[in-house]
Design the sequence.
């Protein structure tokens, strides 16, 4: 996808995920989630070339310093990825993230082994992961699922499920719940922003 088209899609996506979002120029300046994913898209390309792996790590560490978001350049991330609030997010080297995924602050997609193997989660499409949730190990979160705020997930979560608690307990997700979990307007009053 062309660079400009990707930037536009990311900006549209930011507006779709946050009713507090206003003009694209302002959003491009203030959303640390956008800064982090844009830097990662560049760093991920650099990571594919062994000679540029060092600079890719340095770039992402610099971005971490001012966004509070640490994404390893090796992580694979799909389209329309959005991190709201940002601070404290960690995404490990072998994490794989599908399209239309949303994370809140404090989410860790981490490993549970020190071996150099696939050790981070695989996140399906249209998944929302709540603030402070820890998703640990090479497990899979199925499409259209949600992980509740502060959950600790160490096992696979099937598609269309909700995982909450420590350790996370999984239940099926109804269509109504799906809208509520993905749409921030369900807990932010738009009248406050007029
Ligand atoms: C997990 C989540 C997706 C469930 O949403 P939902 O389907 O609308 O669930 P409900 O609000 O109807 O709650 C259903 C039950 O789960 C409980 N529950 C909800 N979220 C929970 C969580 N994160 N951890 C533990 N239990 C939770 C509720 O207390 C309720 O329990 P009850 O049936 O005993 O009363 C949602 O609560 C959540 O955590 N979203 C993340 C939001 C977030 O991180 N926002 C940050 C904004 S800055």
Sequence:
């Amino acid at each position: 996808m062309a660079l400009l088209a990707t930037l536009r899609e990311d900006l549209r996506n930011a507006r779709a995920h946050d009713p507090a979002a206003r003009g694209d120029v302002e959003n491009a300046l203030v959303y640390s989630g956008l800064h982090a994913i844009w830097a990662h898209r560049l760093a991920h390309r650099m990571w594919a070339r062994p000679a540029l792996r060092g600079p890719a790590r340095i770039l992402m560490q610099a971005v971490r310093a001012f966004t509070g978001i640490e994404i390893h350049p090796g992580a694979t991330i799909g389209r329309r990825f959005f991190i709201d609030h940002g601070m404290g997010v960690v995404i490990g080297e072998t994490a794989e993230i599908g399209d239309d995924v949303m994370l809140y602050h404090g989410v860790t997609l981490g490993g549970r082994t020190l071996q150099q193997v696939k050790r981070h989660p695989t996140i399906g499409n249209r998944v929302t992961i709540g603030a402070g949730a820890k998703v640990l190990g090479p497990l899979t979160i199925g499409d259209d699922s949600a992980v509740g705020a502060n959950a600790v997930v160490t096992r696979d979560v099937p598609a269309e499920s909700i995982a909450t608690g420590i350790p996370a307990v999984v239940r099926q997700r109804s269509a109504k719940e799906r809208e509520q979990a993905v749409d921030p307007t369900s807990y932010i009053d738009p009248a406050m922003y007029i």
